[in-house]
Structures are given as structure tokens and as C-alpha cells.
Amino acid sequence: MSIIKKQIEAYRENFLENLGTPEGTFQNNLETQYLRFSRLIKFFRLEQENTIHDIGCGICDMYKYFKSINLKNFIYSGTEIVPEMVNYGKEKYKDIKIFNQDILKIDDSIKYDYLVLSGVFNLPGKTDRKEWKEFCFKMIDKMFELCNKAISFNFLTTNGTFQAPELFYLDPTEVFNYCLKKHSRFVVLDNNYPLYEFTITVYNAKEMEKEFDSKPFKKYFKNNNE
């Protein structure tokens, strides 16, 4: 069975049992869910209009969060592999696009300004841990290929006080170093909030160069091949 099919199996039953609640997508409550979302966009530059694509969007709770904080000038869309979640989201939010697709199979010519991913890496289901880790890093790679500006995602941290056997944890520095070496030197590791997790934001170097385009900063982008 493929990893995608295993993931659908892992999420579908719980979703149907807890329809329309944070628990239906394995969130503890609304407060911690919204804190998690706030950290994902903390380092995004959202003053101008941007496209934001939500990987593993579930029932589009992140879109609901954006509305709750009156975020302006954004075009939201999402990708989700569980058909029932896609149908639920489309019924609830008729003004957004939700795709039932495997993100790894999306053509690289499709671009979004920002891509976000929350909680997707936490539950490997029946997938072997080594295989799951490789899958997670492939997802990160794909997200960066599809972004114009930046990506943001979270993992459960090995620095917590306990580890549940059914969940997946990583050392924050390992993920930080992976992104630093593979994708860009413009990486933020946010480990400064109460949840047993961390958030990584990775900026496209060319986008960073656009932002700091005055003469004093030119020398910092001479070898801009990230």
C-alpha cells in the first residue's frame, strides 16, 4: 500500500467520527490550532496580495483562521488527499479552490507565492519511520519547488517532555540544517511557543533579493544561487 493510501486510511475514520471539529483533523482544540497557524505565517510578508496554498488543508481551518484575523489581500487554495474532507471543505467554503490530489505529482510549472503545511508530518500511520522521514523531506522539497516567495511547515519536536509512540518527531536542528543546505540560507526556526513542536520558514533567495534591492545590500546577493 502506498504512503498516500495509508494516510487516507489513518485520517478518514477519525474525521468521520469527529465531523467538523478540530479533533476531526487530530487538533486538540481551537486555541492551540490557531496558535499553530499564527506561527506558520509569522514571517510571511502579507501586505500585498499573495496566493497561499495550504498542503493537507483538511477542512480548510486555516482559511477560517485567516478570516478570523481579518487577513486581507490573499487568495487561498488547498490540497487534501482525503476525499471526504475535500467534499466537506467545498461545501462549507464555496469561494475557494480545494484540490483532491497528491502534492508530489503536481507539475512544477504551477506556482504559489506561499505554501504552508500544518500537522501533516505528525502521523505516519502504518508507514515505516525511515520511509516516512524521507517522504516528509520530499514534501518539503516539492513545496519549495512550487513557491515564488516562501514555505512554512511544522514538525513535532524531540525536545518535548514525552513522545507518543504513534506520532513522528524530529530534531529541529536537523530540519533547519537540511533546508539551509538544500534550499536557501534564508531559514527561520521558530521554537519559541508552548506547543511541543517547531515551525520552519524558508524564503526563496531571489525573493529576498527583491526585498533588499538597495545598494548597501547588493554584496550579500552576488552568489545568489540558492
Automatic annotation (TrEMBL):
Q: Sorted alphabetically, which Gene3D superfamilies does this protein's record hold?
A: Vaccinia Virus protein VP39 (3.40.50.150)
Q: Which InterPro entries match?
A: SAM-dependent_MTases_sf (IPR029063)
- The domain of life for this entry's organism is Bacteria
Could you identify this protein by its name? Methyltransferase domain-containing protein
